[in-house]
C-alpha cells in the first residue's frame, strides 16, 4: 500500500484485504537479471518482426511473380522469349520463363552463381553434354565450352538451341528442340547416339526427313562417325509422315530404335551391308524389336531401316550409308593433316580417273557470283590397287585465294576409301601414308565401330562454361564468379 | 539501446519490482508475472518516443497483459475449489483465493486500488475505463469478496 492516508479510510475488511495482498506481493523479489531478460525479449521481438516482414515480402514477391508469369503466359505477344517447353534444362539452371526478368536492357545469361559445371554424362566416344541454356531475346547465344580432362584443356565452342532433358526408359536423354529448323535431336549419352527428326516440309530442302546419326570413336581414332541420310526428303506415305515436333512418345521411340540398332543389332546391320539387292533382313540373330534392316535396293546403294508401325505396316524411315570419318595423327605432319573417309562402296559407273582437268562454274550463293569448281583427277596406285587423286579448287570470282581440296581415293574390301590431305602433305606423302595404314579386317572393324564394351573408367570432367558476347555490350563473367 | 537507455533503465529501477508484484497478484504466479512485465517493458521500449507517461503506460500494459493471461487461464481458475469456509476462518491465502475468483477487471481494480493505492482516476486510466466504472467495479468486487468469505 502506497497511500497511507487512503489506507486509514479503509474499513476492516478492506485493510485485511490490503494486508493479504501486500504480504503476498512481498514474496516477489527483484530478479537480478530482469533488465537483461527484458533486453533479450526486445531483441527477440525485433527478430520476430523482421522475420514476419521478410515472410510478408517473400509472399508479396511470390504473388507478384506468379501474377507476372500468368500475365506473360497469357500474353505471348509481349513475351517473345518465353517458352516454357524449351526453356528448361538440367539441375542448377535457371528456368527462363520463371527467373529471367524481361529486362532486355540488361540481358543476362541463364547461368546461376556457380559457373562450374560438371558433365553429367561423358564418354570419349560420345559427345559432351552440359546442361546449359544460353538464351536471350535474340535466341540462343554462342557459348564456349572448356573441357578439362586430367589437366588438359580442350575448348569446344558450340551454340545450342534450347534443350529439354528427359528421362526415357530409365536413361537420360537430351532432346534438343530447334525451332528454327523445326527439328529435334535426341541424344542418348550412354549409347552415343544422336537421332534427329526434321520436319522436311518446313525445314531446309537439304534436310532429310529423318537423319539418324551415331558416333562411335575407336581407340587410336580421334573422331569417328557414321552418318545416315535419307535419299528422299520425306517418305511419301500418308501414314509415314514423321510427327513434328517431337513429343515424349516419339522421343522414346527414337531412343528405342537407335539403341536397338547400334549397340545390339550389329550382326543384322553388318549382314545388311554385305547383302545386295532388296532383301529384308529380319529376325535371326537380331535383338532388335523395333526395327529391321532392308538391304540396299537398286539405285540407292544403301540399306534402309524399316520401322514396324501399327497394324503390322513397315515404313522405311531412313537410309544410312555407313560413312565414317577419321582424322589421323601422322608423324611429321600437323594435326589434322590427314582425314580418312570410309563408306560402303557404291558403283558410280565409269571411273573418274584420267579425267581431264575442267573448270566449271557453280551456282553461287545468294547475291554472290558463281564459283569456279576446278576438279583435277589423276590416277594413282594406292595399296596395290588402282586409285586416283582428286584435287579441286573452288575460286570465287571476287576472291583471289582459292580453296583447295585434295584427296586420294581407292576402293578396297567393298569400301570406298578417301584420304583427304592438307597442304602440308604432298600427293606422295598421301600415298605413303595410305600404304602405311593397317586396314582392319571385318572383325576388327566391327570391334572398332561397335565396341563391345564401353571404355572404363570414364574420366571425371570439370567443365568451365564461358560465353562469348558482343564486345562492349556486356561484361564478361569471370570463371567462378556470379554472373547475375 | 540508444538514446533512451538512461530513461528506460530509470523506469526499470522504479517500476520493475512493483509491476512484478502487481502482476503476481493478478496472475498468482511469479513466472507468469515476469513474463507479463517483461513483455510490457519491451512494449514500452518500442514505443518510448511516442509515450508521455511511461509509468502509466507500463502499468496499463502490465494489466492488459495480465488480463490476456487470465483469459487463457479462466478455465483453470474455474476448476479451483470453491470457497466454503466462513469469513472468520479465512486466512490471507483464502482471501487471495477469493480475490482470484473475481473477474479480471474487478481483480485488477481491487489490486490497483488497494495494493497499488492508486486513486480512482489512476485506476481508470490504467484500466482504460471511466472513473465511474472504477467505482462501481471496485464496489461490486468488494461485495463479492465479502459474500465469499462470509459464506
Question: Can I get a quick summary?
Answer:
The complex is a heterodimer of chains A (484) and B (151). Chain A is of the alpha+beta class and 484 residues long.
Q: Could you describe the 3D structure shown?
A:
The complex is a heterodimer of chains A (484) and B (151). By secondary structure, chain A is of the alpha+beta class. Among the domains of chain A are: 112-322, no CATH class; 331-444, no CATH class. Chain A contains eight helices and 23 strands. Chain A has helices at 4-9, 12-25, 34-74, 96-99, 248-264, 266-274, 427-436, 442-449; strands at residues 116-117, 135-136, 139-140, 142-149, 152-159, 163-168, 171-178, 183-188, 193-198, 210-214, 226-228, 280-281, 292-294, 304-308, 314-318, 320-328, 338-344, 360-362, 371-382, 385-396, 403-412, 415-421, 462-467. A 13-stranded antiparallel beta sheet of chain A has the order 6-7-8-9-10-11-16-17-22-21-20-19-18. The longest helix of chain A is centred in the N-terminal third of the chain and has 41 residues, at 34-74. Chain A is elongated, with a radius of gyration of 35 Å. Chain B is built from eight helices and no strands. The model of chain B is unreliable at 75-90 (pLDDT under 50). Chain B has helices at residues 5-27, 30-46, 54-72, 74-78, 92-100, 104-115, 120-127, 131-150. Helix content of chain B is 75%, strand content 0%. By secondary structure, chain B is an all-alpha fold. Chain B folds into two domains: 1-79, no CATH class; 82-151, Winged helix-like DNA-binding domain superfamily/Winged helix DNA-binding domain (Arc Repressor Mutant, subunit A, Orthogonal Bundle). Chain B is globular and about 50 Å long. The interface between A and B is medium-sized, with 32 and 33 residues.
